[in-house]
Design goal:
alpha/beta, seven-stranded antiparallel sheet, six-stranded mixed sheet, 20 helices, flat, DUF4838
Length: 747
């Protein structure tokens, strides 16, 4: 028995030694003590891209070790040197996006199934095995070592998502960074430039066709409106075919064109269109039949269309093989993964997958009404991308803000990483980025991310909306208590890198989201900390120093970092700051209406809790209609303010909001009148809209309708704001428009 045990131990040791030797026999030593016996070999017929891949490898190996490996083609190999082969030297049967990294007989092979894949393979090798990182354009972390040892390698990977797009100018403006993160350099690669999405109005412009041919457009009720096209009109089909042919002739290198609905839900309800949609079980029925007719004329091109809002549900007709379905998730709640909170979308994804393999996902990752609003959806990015991948979506477009927004660099980086490999450890990715990009401050920013996401997940009923506002979260993850906590974390982060100006600057940019939320919270007069005015030692109301500091910081940091936009509607940082300063001027004015009772004669809807006291509560509305604005839909606004007793007044002012793409317009006119008995009112005057609505109107704006008049003694003030009707040329033609008002100032 003892002999057997002894022999068994020897045999076990031999097996372990054999395994160890086997596992390491192809391990290689690229550089040792600043010396190398390796050269980088590229294919003799290498393209410019393949040669660039070899140069990239050479560059970073020198950055790491200080040693420059020689670049040679196949015919110039030194037989006495070991090799690093870049490119598919052996002509292996690799898929177009497949990469392979392996060692054989002391040589290293970095292979790709295409030029692009070869470059990705080089970056994957550098990142995976040599710990190189590219966190943002011109922000890279490259380790330094005189020794580069590698174990035996045999890594093969093919990304399931083959076209990966993150809508971020970090990638569009920096091609090298896009390559490092393995995403496209543009939002619509291979598309006809002028026909990428929402193209119906481009094929049949309202200005050219509507008056002479209203039948080309959507029937809504008893009226034809230029919101969408009538897809059963044969002349419309002929015009679109001609337009598509002309554009492909103009851009012969383009492979894809969009034939897709405009950005509204006002589709045609004529008898012919309605009959088809009923047969198909979805309004996508008329769309797919129409697009198939177009696609049949261009078999060598791809015709893209949208499964979006009213066309999102799959129909029964199969799209042709050269039709690309772009399925969008715009309606979904972002507080949890789509599969949990937006089951209808998940079902539609499965349904389209049964009809076609040509599915492109158009997903959304930020709050478009407020780029800098804290938006705790990072925990949903991975499960959503996995959902798309698992349902065979090969093309995923993640619509980020393009322009800088909350945690912009982090979000761009994480999203790109997950598109390349959806199964990575998300927490490890976040930790790697925060510690690499923010250095010593990273632990505090990571804690902020963890805290805000944990707080949201406690609130199971919160709807995290792409077109929401931070004011919706002031009782949730942006409560005064939580905002103070986040602010302290960023204070700690700044202290941690106070002696590193470059890193400190990154932390200050990351802080903009919390600063913005605190500014918006201060409009609400929540607490002693978050309010616009505070009493000084003499009891006089002064501007809150916190607000002044936040505004100064916001202005300085955005200017220094060339950050110009607050939302997708083109509302600028300059306009935001100007509006905020106007609000501070307004709130400092003497106001006898403050806190006074308001009765609304016409019915408000939905916003500001439908409470007319929002007009005199001292909390000022911001650039979004969620933020303390009292809303009226499709009717005029008529309210009466009771001052409590007769007073002499000579000024009345009321602010109104305009967000044109959300059908929020300034009123046509505002009339102010007064009464001593609340029955007999004297007209004090009317202010006509100084900026009547046109196609060129500012999309996002706030205006004060102020009336000065001779002093009158009155108690009751009546305000009547006349609704601006939605014009026929607006994308919401046929729908009622909104009036949003806030804070009556009476002196």
């Amino acid at each position: 028995m003892k002999i057997f045990k002894s022999n068994f131990r020897i045999l076990s040791l031999l097996i372990i030694l054999l395994i160890f030797t086997s596992c390491n026999r192809d391990g290689i030593e690229l550089v040792h003590d600043g010396q190398t016996d390796y050269e980088i070999v590229f294919m003799g017929n290498a393209t410019e891209s393949q040669y660039k891949s070899a140069e990239i490898l050479q560059h970073y190996l020198k950055e790491i070790s200080g040693v420059e490996l020689e670049l040679v083609d196949e015919s110039s190999q030194d037989l006495n040197k070991n090799k690093i082969y870049v490119g598919n030297i052996k002509g292996e049967d690799l898929k177009q996006q497949e990469i392979a990294i392996r060692t054989e007989n002391k040589d290293l092979y970095i292979l790709g199934g295409s030029d692009k894949a070869t470059q990705y393979a080089v970056y994957e090798f550098l990142e995976r095995y040599l710990n190189c990182r590219w966190y943002a354009p011109e922000v890279e972390k490259i380790p330094v070592s005189k020794i580069i040892d590698l174990p035996a390698l045999d890594y093969v990977y093919t990304p399931d998502i083959t076209t990966r797009t993150v809508h971020s100018r970090l990638f569009y403006d920096n091609p090298d960074y896009a390559e490092q993160q393995k995403v496209t350099r543009e939002s619509f690669p291979t598309y006809v430039p002028s026909a990428r999405v929402h193209t119906f109005h481009k094929f049949l412009p309202e200005e050219k066709f509507y008056k002479s041919h209203p039948e080309y457009f959507a029937l809504r009720g008893d009226q034809r409106l230029p919101t969408q096209l009538c897809l059963t009109n044969p002349e419309v089909l002929a015009i679109v075919k001609d337009s598509v042919a002309s554009l492909f002739e103009q851009y012969p290198q383009s492979k894809v064109i969009s034939v897709s609905q405009d950005d509204n839900q006002q589709h045609c309800q004529c008898d012919n269109c309605s009959k088809i949609d009923e047969e198909e079980g979805s309004a996508s029925g008329t769309m797919i039949r129409f697009v198939n007719e177009v696609a049949a004329n261009f078999p060598d091109k791809m015709i893209s269309t949208l499964a979006y809002q009213y066309t999102r549900k799959p129909c029964k007709t199969k799209p042709l093989e050269n039709v690309l379905i772009t399925l969008t998730s715009i309606e979904c709640d972002r507080s949890a993964p789509i599969a949990e909170k937006c089951g209808d979308f998940a079902n539609d994804l499965v349904g389209w997958g049964k009809l076609t393999q040509n599915i492109r996902i158009w997903d959304y990752t930020t709050q478009f009404t407020n780029f800098f609003a804290p938006f705790p959806n990072i925990h949903t990015l991975q499960p959503n991308i996995q959902l798309f991948r698992d349902n065979n979506a090969k093309w995923v477009f993640e619509q980020h803000s393009n322009n800088p927004s909350e945690l912009f660099e982090l979000r761009s980086y994480i999203t790109a990483k997950l598109l390349w490999n959806p199964d990575q450890n998300l927490d490890a990715l976040l930790t790697d980025f925060t510690t690499g990009y923010y250095e010593e401050a990273g632990i505090y920013i990571k804690e902020y991310i963890d805290e805000i996401h944990a707080k949201l997940m406690e609130d199971k009923d919160f709807f995290l909306f792409l077109y929401g506002d931070p004011s919706e979260a002031f009782s949730s993850y942006l409560s005064p208590e939580m905002l103070s906590k986040y602010s302290q974390l960023f204070d700690d982060a700044e202290k941690a890198v106070a002696k590193k100006p470059e890193i400190l600057a990154r932390v200050k940019v990351a802080r903009l989201g919390v600063d913005f939320a605190e500014l918006e919270a201060s409009r609400k007069n929540f607490t002693d900390r978050y309010r616009l005015l505070i009493p000084n030692d003499e009891g006089k109301k002064i501007i809150n120093p916190l607000v002044t500091t936040l505004l100064d910081n916001f202005k300085a940091i955005t200017a220094k970092n060339n950050i110009t936009l607050m939302n997708e509607m083109g509302f600028t940082v300059t306009e935001y700051l100007a509006n905020y300063m106007s609000a501070l001027e307004v709130i400092r004015m003497p106001n006898v209406a403050m806190g006074k009772k308001v009765v609304t004669i016409t019915k408000p809807k939905k916003y500001a809790k439908e409470d007319p006291m929002a007009l005199t509560d001292g909390a000022l509305g911001g650039s979004s209609f969620y933020a303390n604005w009292l809303g009226y839909e499709g009717n005029d606004m008529e309210v009466v303010v009771d001052l409590g007793e007769p007073m002499d007044i000579n000024t009345i002012s009321l602010a109104f909001l305009q967000v044109t793409n959300h059908v929020v317009f300034f009123p046509e006119k505002v009339t102010y009148s007064g009464s001593l008995d609340n029955e007999h009112f004297e007209n004090f005057g009317t202010i006509n809209n100084p900026f009547p609505l046109t196609k060129d109107s500012k999309v996002n704006d706030i205006q004060f309708f102020k009336l000065n008049f001779e002093k009158r003694n009155t108690r009751y003030i009546k305000v009547r704001a006349t609704n601006t009707q939605t014009p026929y040329w607006h994308h919401a033609a046929g729908l009622p428009s909104w009036i949003f008002a806030d804070e009556i100032i009476i002196n």
